[in-house]
Amino acid sequence: MVPFLLVGCQTPMPPTPPKPLTVVTVPEPLIVAPAQPIVPEPLITNVPPAVPKWPTNWLRGWIPLANWSQWNGLGPPVRSRGNPSMAYEIRTANGLLKLQVDQRAMRLAGVECWLGYAPQWIRGLPCVYALDAQKTLQPLVSAGSPQRLPSRIVVLDPGHGGKDAGTASVYSREYEKFFTLDWALRVRQLLATNGWTVLLTRTNDTDVSLPERVALAERAAADLFLSLHFNSGTNSHPRAGLETYCLTPAGLPSNLVRNHEDDPKQTFPNNDFDDENLQWAFRLHRALLERTGAVDHGVRRARFMAVLRGQRRPAVLIEAGYLSNPREARKIATAEYRQQLAEAVAKALE
Questions:
Q1: Could you give the CA distance from residue 301 to residue 308 in angstroms, rounded to a whole number?
Q2: Average pLDDT over every residue of 230-249
Q3: Residue 172's closest CA among 7, 1, 334?
Q4: pTM, whole model, 2 decimals?
């Protein structure tokens, strides 16, 4: 895959001395033993069945894709017809899963999602990294995900505000902070009429620090934290489209670093919600694509986003288009398009 650069909206971070990027070394290829058949426990009335434990011989190394598929009771992976680049398909309860050897981007039900490591061809078999299988594939193909939010309390975080204006639109010259607030207010109106408790980290053009945004969600005992942003690229990379982010699980490299250190050994409070983070990110991303028809740049993970990693609840950050792209900036400048974004978020949460 050809590498590209993303500039993105810039969230202020506490000043720290520059650090070299951590080099992530892929473990040596390993082939694990074939998956053992899963024998279900006897059914006990009114008690949910136990989830089978992740096989102990899958804790490290690489897993043949066929083994993972068998363990989940799915059919064997099928080589995509007419595709010379070793792409494979598996039918799941949540849609068709498509993976490709040497490509970190995969698709589920047509929606792009990113792995930590690209699948590899090892000893004649397509294999996925064990932690990717556990932390990416497994949450996405789990039927009925994500879980419902019991208290229906959501915190909406309009990105930027006050002195931190965010990126400027090449079309209207208005700043990101204006568009994110308008989007959040529209979402609040839609959810409030349907029994939700909705709090905003800001309701006007004011400065709110990243720790304050995290603390507000903590005080509210929110079920979900959703940070709303718009993106920006460079003149040499005039991108357009949607990207949705959640925190990177410990042990995996991030899909976006923006010159920040990315240490896979780090863990944060929000890592307790790795599965729910990804499930809500996927659900929101899919709803936004369906409502807007925007270009799909995928569900991705990042470790440097402080507004996510301190959360003690599922947390997602959406980049809903590029203000640096003239055509996309023109759409974002319209109230009609921002209403579409709001309706997509409300639909995803329901």
A1: 11
A2: 88
A3: 334
A4: 0.85
